[in-house]
Design brief:
8 helices, 36% helix, globular, 7 strands, alpha/beta, 17% strand, seven-stranded mixed sheet
Length: 236
C-alpha cells in the first residue's frame, strides 16, 4: 500500500515513511475501501510524505509456510521482507533514498527498532511506540507461542534481543511508552535506553503519563502530532 502526497509531482523526490506492524498473524492491507489506509497515513500525505506498508511473511491468509516463517526467530524474516519493500521504493524515481523513515507500535515498535539498528544506513528516522525489546520480558501467552521458551530457544532469544544492537543506532530514533503499560512493560524501553547509554548512542524518549499500551482518548491527538513533528524535524 503506497499513499502519495497531496499535490503529487512525479518529477519531485519525496521523503518516505514505512508504517510497519509485521507481527505474526496480523494483516494490515486488505482488498477493501482504500486498502485499510489509516487517518495518520492520510495526514502524513497532507504533510508531503509518501507512506508505504507491506505485509511480509508471518501475516495472515497466505498459507502455513508463509505464516510460520518467523517461528522462533522473530524480527529476522520480517526485517528482510520490509527491506524487499525498501528495494521496491528505491526503484521509484520520486522516492528520496536519503530520506527514509519507519514507524510502528507494539510489534511494530519492535520492528521499527529492529530496522533502525539492523539497517542503520537505510533509515534516517524512526518512531517506535510501545516497543518490545527483549522477548523474555514479554507475556508468555504470545512470546512462547512464537519463540518457544528462553530455555529451549536461547539462540533465537539472543538474536532477537534488540539490546544487543543498541550500539548500531545511527539515525534519530524516538521511543514512546505509556507509563502504565501492562502489555509491553517499561522494562523493555528502559533496558534499551540503558544499553544505548553504555554504547554511546543517542535515542530520544517520550512517556505518556496514565496510559497503558495504547494512548487513547484526547491524548491520542497529541500522540500523532508528536510522531508527525518528529518526522518533520528530522526527515522532511
Amino acid at each position: 500500500r503506497l499513499i502519495k502526497p497531496v499535490g503529487f509531482d512525479p518529477q519531485k523526490k519525496y521523503p518516505t515513511v514505512i508504517y510497519v506492524y509485521g507481527g505474526p498473524h496480523a494483516q494490515m492491507i486488505h482488498d477493501t475501501w482504500m486498502w485499510d489506509v489509516r487517518g495518520w497515513d492520510i495526514y502524513m500525505a497532507q504533510n508531503g510524505y509518501i507512506v508505504f506498508s507491506v505485509d511480509g511473511r508471518g501475516s495472515n491468509n497466505r498459507g502455513l509456510e508463509f505464516e510460520s516463517a518467523p517461528h522462533r526467530r522473530l524480527g529476522e524474516i520480517e526485517g528482510k521482507d520490509q527491506m524487499r519493500g525498501v528495494a521496491f521504493l528505491k526503484s521509484l524515481p520520486y522516492v528520496d533514498q536519503e530520506r527514509m523513515g519507519v514507524h510502528g507500535w507494539s510489534f511494530g515498535g519492535f520492528m521499527t527498532t529492529y530496522l533502525m539498528t539492523h539497517y542503520p544506513e537505510t533509515f534516517k528516522v524512526g518512531v517506535a511506540g510501545g516497543p518490545v525489546i527483549d522477548w523474555k520480558y514479554y507475556e508468555v501467552m504470545y512470546g512462547e507461542r512464537y519463540m518457544g521458551t528462553p530455555q529451549n530457544n536461547p539462540e533465537g532469544y539472543e538474536k532477537s534481543n534488540l539490546n544487543n544492537y543498541a550500539g548500531n543506532l545511527k539515525g534519530h530514533l524516538l521511543l514512546i511508552h505509556g507509563d502504565q503499560d501492562p502489555v509491553v512493560v517499561m522494562q523493555h524501553s528502559l533496558s534499551f535506553l540503558d544499553h544505548c547509554v553504555k554504547a554511546r548512542t543517542y535515542p530520544d524518549y517520550f512517556v505518556y503519563p496514565g496510559h497503558e499500551h495504547n494512548v487513547i482518548g484526547l491524548d491520542r491527538v497529541h500522540l500523532h502530532e508528536k510522531i508527525t513533528r518528529y518526522f518533520n524535524d528530522y526527515l522532511k
